[in-house]
TrEMBL record:
This is MFS transporter. Keywords: Antibiotic resistance, Cell membrane, Membrane, Transmembrane, Transmembrane helix, Transport. InterPro entries: EmrB-like, MFS, MFS_dom, MFS_trans_sf. PANTHER family: EXPORT PROTEIN, MAJOR FACILITATOR SUPERFAMILY MULTIDRUG TRANSPORTER MFSC. It is a multi-pass membrane protein. It is found in: Cell membrane. Gene3D superfamilies: MFS general substrate transporter like domains, Multidrug resistance protein D. The keyword GTP-binding does not apply. It comes from Streptomyces bangladeshensis. Residues 14-459 form the Major facilitator superfamily (MFS) profile domain. Residues 464-484 are annotated as: Disordered. The lineage of its organism: Bacteria, Bacillati, Actinomycetota, Actinomycetes, Kitasatosporales. It comes from the Bacteria.
Length: 484
């Protein structure tokens, strides 16, 4: 029986450790976008390299996050968490020292592997260590502090870019890891799942990551029209088909196909793909639009995005409580519509855009839409499966959101007609941005239609989210499984 009490010194150290670990990964998901223009300038990188700077991390994170949770259950959650923190910090150091765009992209892929180890591990440590009477409060504090980190991330990233330089966006993770690891080894108890047995689905995880990587490459390089792009796209599709084939035939698959027998689970994940594709494209392009076209400094661009996350932190728990009474269908229908309106309001953001009249209204509407949407989305995912599979369902939903974001970052510049050097020309980028926002709005409208048509009220007594406070714009919160 877990026996660590939150008020005890050990409980406070444990909470600090998990917040620091997950905060490293969450910071990187929000700060890098703000640094992209300076990275491109310093490394003489084109738009494709900036896309890969974001997507190399997401490819490995989305492809391996389910496997990372399984490794912790089998070999020890603290052990795998610490390994993830060390791995993430080492990759961050390599990012910060990268002499070329190729080294930076490779290091970002390594970062994603570390993120896949530590992100699920931080929540699993809380679930496995705290006394049941304190567990919900500990999860709430972990989620709330993580949300604060996500909110501070863009501002901190902008300040670092404008001050000591973009490399410190990555180097900052090293002292955080140096603080986190000794505390974890001294104060966090080891735990594992005695029921975990059998082989790991390494083949499935590898095929999933390879499929994502190949398809992402094909989308980013499609503007070249070379035969290599067509071959890569075909190989990516083949890897995706092989992934489905393997998952159907393995005795313990990473992604059990039978979980999609739930119509509600399938519908909510379709909504997730639509809305997080729009969010991924929106935040990637908006950070560039504010700096390249509107002329904002990196700190100003980072601060400009704060209202969206702040609204999520302040009101996500209330939105979840409201969805408990109304059911998920209404918020999952209305939330994407609000976000779509925000995308169209962003068309007002051009050269010398005024923050109060041009930028802030769009971000406030965006925040309202995300508040309306995200907490009910998580609740609907958990309610669509058995209690014992709640953690698996949450992990799949989180991975789906990240995969949707990376596909959007790869495909949206292509669909909007952005050339390799578009971010160096304010006029060219502004014109492409104006074409991209309606595309994002269209994805949100599709998500709203799917929710209205397919999402239904869950049955009584289904699992409820423990992460009531949420501020991460990159993916829905992870939830643990095996609870009532």
């Amino acid at each position: 029986m877990p026996d660590v009490r939150l008020a005890s010194p050990r409980g406070k150290w444990l909470l600090l450790t998990t917040v620091l670990g997950s905060g490293m990964a969450m910071l990187d998901s929000t700060v890098v976008n703000v640094a992209l223009p300076r990275i491109g300038h310093d490394l003489d990188a084109n738009l494709a390299a900036l896309q890969w700077t974001v997507n190399a991390y997401l490819v490995t994170l989305a492809g391996l996050i389910l496997l990372g949770g399984s490794l912790g259950d089998r070999y020890g959650r603290r052990k795998v968490f610490v390994l993830g923190v060390v791995w993430f910090a080492a990759a961050s150091l390599l990012c910060g020292l990268a002499p070329t765009e190729g080294v930076l992209i490779a290091a970002r892929a390594l970062q994603g592997i570390g993120g896949a180890l530590l992100t699920p591990g931080s929540l699993a440590l809380i679930q496995a260590s705290f006394h049941p009477d304190d567990r919900s409060r500990a999860v709430g504090l972990w989620s709330g502090f993580g949300g604060i980190g996500a909110a501070v991330g863009p501002f901190l990233g902008g300040w670092l870019v404008a001050g000591p330089g973009w490399r410190w966006v990555f180097l900052l993770n090293v002292p955080l890891a140096l603080l986190c690891v000794p505390v974890a080894l001294r104060h966090v108890p080891e735990s594992a799942d005695e029921r975990a047995h059998g082989r790991f689905d390494v083949l499935g995880a590898g095929l999933g990551a390879v499929a994502l990587a190949l398809l992402t490459y094909a989308l980013i390089e499609a503007r070249s029209g070379s035969p290599a792009v067509a071959l890569t796209a075909a190989a990516g599709c083949a890897a995706a088909v092989a992934f489905v084939y393997v998952e159907k035939r393995r005795p313990a698959p990473m992604l059990p196909p039978d979980i999609f027998a739930s119509r509600q689970f399938t519908a909510v994940n379709l909504v997730t793909l639509c809305v997080y594709a729009a969010f991924g494209g929106f935040f990637f392009l908006t950070a560039l639009q504010l700096q390249v076209v509107a002329g904002y400094s990196p700190p100003a661009a980072g601060t400009a995005l704060l209202p969206t996350t702040a609204l999520m932190l302040l009101f996500s728990s209330r939105s979840g409580a409201l969805a408990d009474r109304t059911g998920p269908r209404l918020p999952l229908t209305v939330g994407p519509l609000l976000c779509a309106a925000a995308m169209l309001l962003m068309l007002r953001v051009g050269r010398d855009a005024d923050y109060l009249t041009d930028v802030l209204p769009a971000l406030l509407v965006m925040g309202a839409g995300m508040v309306t949407l995200v907490a009910p989305l998580t609740a609907a995912v958990l309610a669509s499966v058995d209690t014992a599979r709640a953690g698996l369902a949450s992990g799949i939903n989180n991975a789906a959101a990240r995969a949707a974001g990376l596909v959007a970052v790869a495909a949206l510049p292509l669909l909007a007609g952005m050339g390799p050097e578009a971010y160096r020309s304010p006029a060219a980028f502004d014109a492409a941005f104006d074409r991209a926002m309606p595309i994002c709005a269209g994805a949100l409208l599709l998500g709203s239609a799917v929710a209205f048509r397919l999402v239904r009220r869950p049955t009584p007594g289904c699992p409820r989210p423990e992460c009531r406070t949420h501020g991460n714009v990159a993916a829905p919160p992870l939830e643990a499984g095996g609870r009532s």
